[in-house]
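Predict structure. Chain length: 288.
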Amino acid sequence: MPGSGTDSTKPWAAGGPLVILVEPQLGENIGSAARAMGNFGLSRLRIVNPREGWPNEKARVFSAGADRILADATLYPDLRSALAGVNFAFAATARERGMAKPVVGADGAAAEARSRLAQGEEVALVFGRERTGLYTEEVSLCDAILTLPVNPAFASLNLGTCVAVSAYEWFKAESEGALPFAPPDRSPLADKGDLFAFFDHLETALDVSGFFRSPEKAPSTIRNLRNIFHRLGLTRQDLATLHGAITALEEGRAGREARKLENNARAAARKTVGAEKNTAKPDDAASG
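Prediction complete.
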């Protein structure tokens, strides 16, 4: 769902390596790249000569709320100028370029970027055009090649997807893989007394309903039922829910309605007694 998991009250993760998009052709892809950056804690975007000009309304729409990244983006005429102030750059490419450069995956680039940023260096992730990627001359301006293990018969990734995968590995390394939430605390496990009380309730209800049609088979059927529930590791809350379900089946709709009317009558009676106590006048004091 759009916006699912978004909480504007939490601080916006920012920083990390620069993301440089070289001559992106579509505003939609710029926006998708910005959205991925926002998802995974990258905030600094440089754009080289976007084909559809800048600013771009389609980029804003596809950023899905990552407007601040687009608003702070800076434009450059070519990659050489966009690399100003950068100490180490990764060129993202799906093709072998025959260059004596380190070749790393997105996880390796993230680890290297973290190390260099911690030493005060500036690091950039450079992504090329949707149709042709980076030119060989542009790859030569970078220090290492970033590539991904993809289907060699269909290796060309969408620009936004490529940024998303790289940004994901960055944030996973930066957060040490911490997930945003954990399973809720479970109710305490039921003890044997709780479990045996449930068995008594269940087996009595089944007996009354005529479930045990064959007296000879009843003991083995009961054992099978008990073993099913033993395997589940039921909590006290689980048993409370199961007790309620069995009670509802025992009572049926008419029984539930009768119990509801009875409870409402009791509540009304208590309310009436309380009102009478509040309005009663104390006896007049004897005059001396």
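Summary: The chain has two domains: 18-174, 192-275.
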